[in-house]
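Renewal narrative, Specific Aim 1. Our central claim is that a sequence can be written position by position from structural information alone. The example that follows is taken directly from our test logs and has not been curated for this report. It begins with the structure tokens describing the chain, in the order in which they were read.
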């Protein structure tokens, strides 16, 4: 009787929902603006609408479950703590509310954790059980699969791999602490470095790649051959590599997958990452780790929601 799974992703400015079959084949999708400023209750209503849209012509009882991912720390009840892009959120349990409305088993998780699950079940990590997923975009987040299971920590807040301290007196991170990886290698930090170098008189075409300088414009300039942009991407790659060395020593993953907008720089980013790892691991036994691009692109959070449901479905 069970035929469908629903994934919901609250990342960015959009609420996105997807319905797949039990093998992850995409059958329907919907997208609505989050309009976060309208407050938590209004966002919950729009989440309901997005789910209703992918349920069209389907019996809700044929759905094995709904999996929802959101940015920022979120516990297993779908309570988001201090959501970065959802102001006026209030004390809302998303799993409780969605379950009340649709009467289906509902599961929630941090979107980067779910992305790791998604890549493990449907993407570039299907054949390994020890996997680190890292996304490098406006922030740096991640998820860890260890021994085939998502590593959650005591309350579900583990794997904030972008907030490892690399320079004790480094630049201030979005979280307020100094020298975190995110403050050294995210899109905005790459853009900030570009702005500074240009102000110092560096010669570069970066300003031609968009009306303002962003991680995306630096990435595009780097791919077009701009030397300063390539240098800035390589520097980000160096710090990402250092962060991965820490994770490799602690977790010994077989594979590391990197997604997010900055990963579009391709080998310009991946080569300095791999070089840094080779140079900084404590022993050659750690050099065998595979460092590769993630596979699921913009759908990684949605497929992570689907994977989360399937994880609970015995
Ligand atoms: Zn931080």
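The sequence written for that structure reads:
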């Amino acid at each position: 009787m069970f035929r469908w799974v629903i994934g919901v992703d609250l990342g960015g400015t959009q609420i996105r929902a997807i319905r797949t079959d039990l093998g992850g084949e995409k059958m329907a999708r919907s997208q609505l603006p989050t309009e976060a400023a309208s407050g938590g209750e209004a966002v919950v209503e729009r989440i309901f609408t997005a789910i209703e849209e992918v349920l069209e012509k389907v019996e809700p009882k044929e759905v094995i479950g709904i999996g929802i991912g959101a940015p920022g720390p979120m516990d297993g009840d779908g309570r988001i703590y201090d959501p970065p892009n959802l102001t006026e959120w209030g004390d809302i349990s998303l799993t409780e509310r969605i379950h009340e409305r649709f009467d289906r088993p509902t599961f929630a998780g941090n979107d980067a954790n779910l992305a790791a699950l998604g890549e493990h079940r449907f993407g570039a990590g299907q054949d390994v059980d020890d996997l680190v997923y890292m996304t490098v975009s406006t922030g740096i987040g991640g998820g860890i699969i260890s021994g085939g299971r998502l590593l959650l920590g005591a309350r579900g807040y583990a794997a904030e791999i972008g907030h490892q301290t690399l320079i004790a007196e480094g630049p201030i991170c979005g979280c307020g602490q100094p020298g975190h990886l995110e403050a050294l290698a995210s899109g905005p930090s790459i853009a900030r470095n570009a702005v500074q170098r240009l102000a110092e008189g560096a010669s570069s075409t970066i300003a031609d790649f968009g009306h303002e300088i962003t991680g995306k414009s630096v990435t595009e300039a780097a791919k077009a051959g701009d030397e300063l942009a390539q240098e800035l991407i390589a520097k980000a790659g160096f710090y990402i590599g250092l962060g991965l060395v820490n994770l490799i020593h602690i977790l010994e993953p077989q594979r590391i997958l990197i997604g997010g907008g900055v990963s579009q720089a391709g080998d310009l980013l991946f080569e300095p990452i791999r070089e840094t790892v080779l140079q900084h691991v404590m022993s050659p036994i750690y050099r065998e780790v595979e460092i590769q691009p993630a596979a699921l692109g913009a759908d990684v959070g949605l497929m992570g929601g689907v994977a989360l449901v399937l994880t609970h479905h015995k």
